[in-house]
Sequence to fold (308 residues):
Amino acid sequence: MIRAGIIGGLHPAAGHLIRLLIHHPDVELMWVCAPEAEGHLLSSAHRGLIGESYMRFCSQPDMEQADVLFLCHTDDGESTEFMTVNEVPAEMRIIDLSPDFRFEPEEGELPEQWIYALPELNRKPLVRGARKAAIPGGMAAAVLLGLLPMAKNLLLNSPIHASVLVPSNEDMPPAYPVAYLDHDQVDEISHSLRQLQTSFNSPVEMLATAAGWQRGIVATMYFDTPMQLNAIRDIYDEFYEDHSFTFISDSLPDLREVAGSNRCVIYLEKVKSKLVVTTVIDDVYKGSAGAAIHAMNLLFGLQERVGL
Fold:
C-alpha cells in the first residue's frame, strides 16, 4: 500500500486530490498538512468529504509516514521554498502541482531531476526510476495534447495560434480575458514541443478567456500544413494508440465528453491550408489532480488507469 501525504492542504487542488486518493485501491492517505487549519476536519474545507473521510488537518508533515508527497501550492516559489527548507527523504516520490519545477533548473537553482509529467510526452522517464514529477499547467496540457503528434513528425513549421477557454471564478466575470500572449504557459508549451521537434522555433500565440462555465478547458489551435487530413489523422492515431486517456473524435467534442474524467478528446479539421485542432479536458482531472494521480501510478509501476 502506497502511503501519501499532502502539503498545501487548503488549496482546491488538494481537495480534488483527497477525493481521488481516498478511493484509490493502492493508496492510504496518511496526512494532509495545513498549519492554519490544524485540527479541523478535511470536510470543513473541501466539499464532498462528509461521510467519506474523518481525517483532520495536521500542522507538520510526517515524512516518515509517506512514500509519496503531493505539493499543492499554487503560487510561484512556494514549492521551491518547501524543498529548500525541509529535509525530504531521498527515496520519496514527490509530485508538484505548482509551476516551480516544470522547466529544467537554471544555474544556481536546485539541481533536481524533475520530470515534466505529461505522460503522452514523458511516460518512459516516469516509469524508469523517476522520483520527482512536475504536473503541467492545465492550459499547456490542453494545447500540447493537440500538437504533440505533429511535433513528433517534425511538422510544426509555421506560427501556431491558440484560443483557450478556461473556467471562470468568483472574481472573474464571463468573457473577461485572463491571459494574453505573454502567459508563462506559452513558454511551457514551446519548451515541451522542442523535446520532440528540436528545430521548433515558430511563435506560439495564445489567448486564454474565461468562458463563463465552472469547469473544463477547450483549446483550439490552428496553423499551416500542406498535409491532407487523412494523413494527419493517421499520425494522431498512431501517436495515441497506446495511451489510455487521449482519444481522437470524428465529431467536435464538448466538455460533457470529459467531465469527471482524466480523458482528453481531440478533433481534427482541415480548413484550406490550415489544420484546426480542438481539444477538451476536465481541468480538475487531466489538468490537475487527475494528472497527479496518473503520474503517481506511473512512478510506482501501477497500471496507469488505477484510481482514475
Observations:
- The CA atoms of residues 63 and 89 lie 7 Å apart.
- The chain has a mean pLDDT of 90.
